[in-house]
Every structure is written in structure tokens, then in C-alpha cells.
User: Fold this.
Amino acid sequence: MGPGDGRRRGSDSDAPLSQPPRPCEAYRAEWELCRSAGHFLHHYYVHGERPACEQWRRDLASCREWEERRSAEAQEVTRVSFAQRSLCESERARVQAARKHALVWAPRQSPPADWHLPLPQEKDE
Amino acid sequence: MAGAGDARGPGPAAGEPPPQQRGACQVFPERPAQGKPPQEGFLSGFFTNDQKCPLMLLKTLETNPYVKLLLDAMKHSGCAVNKDRHFSCEDCNGNVSGGFDASTSQIVLCQNNISNQAHMSRVVTHELIHAFDHCRAHVNWFTNVRHLACSEVRAANLSGDCSLVNEIFRLHFGLKQHHQTCVRDRAVLSILAVRDVSKEVAQKAVDEVFEPCFHDHEPFGRIPHNKTYARYAHRDFQNRDRYYSNI
Assistant:
């Protein structure tokens, strides 16, 4: 997931977040993929070690608790809030891990000016 | 021709890039030197005997999940890709399969060296990664070999070039962390295909940038080992607004 330009509502806010970062089906699919024999082979081929899939399982459980909040009784609010925090912390850790290396090049603020220009030969014609 | 080159063989039973060093102009003879207008691009390939290249390109652009994600990501970054403007099917010297010409913002597809649809998809993915880097960052393709090395590491890592199957077809047998060995080696080969530098200089550049660039998985967010991973990555990219709004 690349850097997005969506609005960020930090976990420090008291306002509840509206929905999980991903549909719960996405967490289930990632957990299943992680546990597959094919992924074990790919991961070992790239990293030389077995993959860790437990976090996807925990995130799936947190997501399902989050999505149950609409029918939650008042006494369940604390449990659902914990699930939200847990899931958000897990996703923020993934984002931090993806950004921890310094960039080799400077990012652009706008695309190259000549990207859409016609080819020099076309311009002459 | 000035840009990143893909020093890949003509198919799964790949040959290696030519043993002697060639400049980019010798590898891509239809590409003009800087300052000269380029030859006809996409249409000239269509009307020559080799009509497979445009047809394979079209199928790749319309169906391949790696490519569809890259096209979406480039559009989001302000570099919408036009098939007729940004791709050119040409005959190339040696075993090079394609390249990205930063001076004209064009991807060159070596129609005489791309033999099947799967190969076309890999080459297009590889070169689109270079184009994506050109779009999102100030990459000094011509003056900074570390920048070139970084983009080549990313392209070898994320395009499927170094999949276990492709390496086995090349008779490169290895399992534990072999992917990283392949990425390093192919990045060096690609640099040597388009830059008049020594192998030691290319190797040093790859070694210096490997850690950050190997872990830069944009726009995929992961290493897409096959089309399933690429589809999941595309799903995540399309979901990014919801994602960043809710963490």
C-alpha cells in the first residue's frame, strides 16, 4: 500500500473511526494466503525464513469485533474499542515498517513536465 | 537511448546479455541519440512483418494484474499512460528485451527478442516500474548510477524477473534467499546493458542502494510473487483512501 492522500484520523482522537481500514474479507484472504504452502515457499525463497501469519489472524478477529459494534450492547463498547485500537496499531506498524528506509532519490511534487508532450518528431510535423 | 535497460534473454531459456560492453545506442539502434528525432514508434511495428508485438502489448495492458496496478498508480501520480505515445515496438541488437527512454518518456519493447505473452507481460511490468519511478521521483538516469541501480533493483524485485521458476529456467538453482541474489545480479546486468561503466562500479552502486531499494515495494505494497499477489496489491491500492482514513 503506497502513501495515500486520504484523511488521517489519528488513534488519539476520541471520535470513533467509522470502519476498519480494510474489509474483514481482506484480512481473511491475507491470513489464508499467508498460511498457504505456496506463500511459505515464496517467503523462504526471498527471506530465508518461514513467514509469520499470526498477526493477520489477530487482525481478522479485531476486524470482526469492530464490525459487530453496531449491534453491541453498551457493556461491549470497551471490548470493541480495544479491537479498534489493536487493529489500527497493527496497521500503523505495517506502514512504519514500509517507510523505515531512507529514500535514494528526492520525491517529485509534480509529474515530469514532458510526460504528455508529443514526441519531437510529431511536434515537428 | 538513455534510460534503464532490461538485460534479459529472449525467453525462459534465457541467454545472457552480450559479453562485450555496448552503449545504449548500439543496443537500441532505432532509438536516436539525444537531439535527434526518434523513428516511428508503435505504428511502424504494426506494419512490419512482426505484428505480434502490438497485439501482445494490448493483451498485457488489458489483462495483466501487475500492469493494471502500475497503470492505475501512474495515472494517480499524474502520468497517465497512452499506449501509442508511451510504448514503441522496435528491433534491438543483442539480447535486450526492452528499455525505458527517459528523454522521450517512452518504453521500448524489443519485438525481435520478446517471444511470448508471458515474456511481454514481464518486460512491460519491468519497464513500467522504471516509468513509475521517473514519474514519482527525481531520478537522474543519466548522471547518477545509484539512482539507476535503485530502479533496476526494484524492477528485478517486483516484476517477476527473479521468480523461482524463471531462475530455474535460467539454470540458476538456489532456494534460501536466492531471490535477493538474483535481484542483485540482474540489476548489475541491466546497468551494464545501458551504461558504459565497469562491472565493479555497477556492483558497488547496487550494493550501496540495495537495502532501501529492495524494501521499496511501491506501488505494490508487497513483492508480487504471482498474479494472486498482484491482484491483492491492486485491491489494496484501490482501497487506499479508506485505509489511510481509518488507521
Remarks:
- The first strand of chain A starts at residue 106 and ends at 107.
- Residues 1-15 of chain A have pLDDT under 50 and may be disordered.
